[in-house]
Specification:
By secondary structure, this protein is of the alpha+beta class. It contains five helices and five strands. The protein has a three-stranded antiparallel β-sheet. α1 runs antiparallel to α3 and α4 packs across α5. 19% of the residues are buried.
């Protein structure tokens, strides 16, 4: 026998649970009828798992805020004196004269070794700017602050002293120092004195 689907009027074999035309279900003994197009006992869709935003563990660079109060008195003296050393490298160091003609040469023009002082001084001043802007540097240095400042300042003093004493000369040419050389020498001494001076005194007293 056959029966007619109430939804689409299609003939369906007797005993069929679903209409092949529209998918409507028929009441079968022990199984309740369900709406058209819905399969009985169909598993319900599982709720979507909530997406949790995990906090990022990426380390961020602290905000830079310039504050001179972070410098000690020795830091201020060394920073100002080192800036004077940097400027002096571009000033006339030596003055030469021959047969009524005179010329001057800056420290960098007269001695290539002073380029080492140029690089060291720039790095030292950048380091001072970093310590003034950050209470704790983004990159931790394995060398103590005082040792960094003293090491660079003493190295600059030695190089400036050597360049000052190695006065260039030529036969028949009179060469003398100019104000740039004296400024560099004095500034290099002042830059190294705040940290190197006390240590030299302690070393002398211990002997």
């Amino acid at each position: 026998m056959s029966k007619v689907c109430a939804q689409c009027q299609r003939e369906v074999a007797d005993g069929a649970a679903f209409c092949p035309g529209c998918g409507a279900t028929f009441a079968v003994a022990g199984v309740p009828a369900s709406p058209a197009g819905v399969q009985p006992n169909a598993p319900s869709a599982a709720p979507a798992a909530p997406i949790s935003a995990e906090p990022s563990n990426t380390a961020s660079i602290p905000v830079y805020k310039f504050d001179l109060a972070r410098w000690s008195k020795a830091d201020r003296i060394t920073a100002i004196a080192s800036a004077a050393v940097l400027i002096s490298l571009f000033l006339p160091w030596f003055r030469a004269s021959a047969t009524g003609v005179s010329a001057t040469a800056s420290g960098l023009q007269a001695h290539g070794i002073l380029y080492v002082t140029l690089v060291l001084t720039i790095l030292l001043l950048l380091y001072f700017l970093a310590t003034a802007g950050w209470k704790q540097l983004p990159v931790r240095a394995s060398v103590p602050h005082a040792l960094i400042v003293m090491g660079v300042s003493v190295a600059n003093f030695v190089i400036v002293l050597i360049a000052f004493l190695m006065k260039p000369g030529a036969t028949g040419v009179a060469v003398g120092w100019s104000f740039g050389a004296f400024l560099a020498l004095v500034a290099a001494v002042v830059a190294a004195a705040p940290l190197a001076g006390p240590r030299l005194r302690k070393l002398a007293e211990s002997r």
